């Protein structure tokens, strides 16, 4: 039988990152040693105390449904963490979700109607475009590539894009795929535009704890932004908990009560014992976070130096664990060749809206990063 698919699913493409990792798996199953720098996940185990908390919670019988928006202790701990960041947060303004991705998905579905304008800063994480399209939104994209991926010099371009027609603006600092951490002046510029044009802003802060020598500002702390910001965060990156699936959104209660309808009718709740593990992560896991952060910083510096030795100047950000390597104009061909010939997996910049680059995740050991650079050089890719 031929299915009559909904227009919404036909509007989106499968994730480009997945296509690369499929190719890497295919080569690996043929016995090829692939250096996979395409995946956006820390290569560290989940901290032991968090694993134990999850196991203990399971053993203690925390295996049933929880209140849809999350267990009260975790919602309160999240609100308290947000208050520490300077956000005026209460626990009833928090929804605990299975991953930050679900929190983002619920936000798009709650706010965007057919034809509503969503403004993205390119290069932008791949799923924002898909989420906007799935909810019927139209995209308006502002390119930060000409400004080494910084927002402050791109503010004039953003000003030209944002208007009274704009429903939603997405800010992701520290950024995937560039690692850029936006300055306070840049965020103030975002605030001025959002307030002037009455725009809601998603502030995706999933890489907040992974920064090098800078303190990222939460957008919702800026005057006038608390009432129009949806703050997204999660446990995947900071605590190396990608497979646990745990994240959250914080927004004004009026928005939370609408999003909660989607949440309860789709996922019901995040996994019960995982929420208990999340509580342990938030309250008792500072050291492991700092160790991972220091390791990422060393890798970033080493990788940038290795590329510099080959006369490749890579714009390096102050956060997350990604960098955008300038490559050939046809970045898709470059990435396909790099994996085929050099057995190094990266993601084409065009998947993020910025052709001419390849995104590298440096969440890999120093040895594997060296190996990747050697192979790319040996096969003439740098
Ligand atoms: C920018 C950004 N936001 C959100 C997410 C979602 O992460 P998770 O659903 O694992 O919490 C990711 C994951 O790669 C990301 O890179």
From TrEMBL:
Asked whether the keyword Manganese is assigned, the reply is no
Cofactor(s) essential for the protein: pyridoxal 5'-phosphate
Give the EC number(s) listed in the UniProt record.
2.6.1.-
Q: Give the UniProt keywords, A-Z.
A: Aminotransferase, Pyridoxal phosphate, Transferase
- Report the InterPro entries cross-referenced here: Aminotransferase_I/II_large (IPR004839), AspAT/PAT-like (IPR050596), NHTrfase_class1_PyrdxlP-BS (IPR004838), PyrdxlP-dep_Trfase (IPR015424), PyrdxlP-dep_Trfase_major (IPR015421), PyrdxlP-dep_Trfase_small (IPR015422)
Sorted alphabetically, the Gene Ontology BP terms of this entry are: amino acid metabolic process
| Name of a matching Pfam family | Aminotran_1_2
Q: Does the keyword Transferase apply?
A: yes
All residue ranges annotated as the Aminotransferase class I/classII large domain in the record: 33-376
What are the GO MF terms of this UniProt record?
pyridoxal phosphate binding; transaminase activity
Q: Which family does it belong to?
A: Belongs to the class-I pyridoxal-phosphate-dependent aminotransferase family.
The record describes its quaternary structure and partners as: Homodimer.
Protein name, as recorded: Aminotransferase
> Which source organism does the UniProt entry give?
Halobellus clavatus
Q: What is the lineage of its organism?
A: Archaea, Methanobacteriati, Methanobacteriota, Stenosarchaea group, Halobacteria
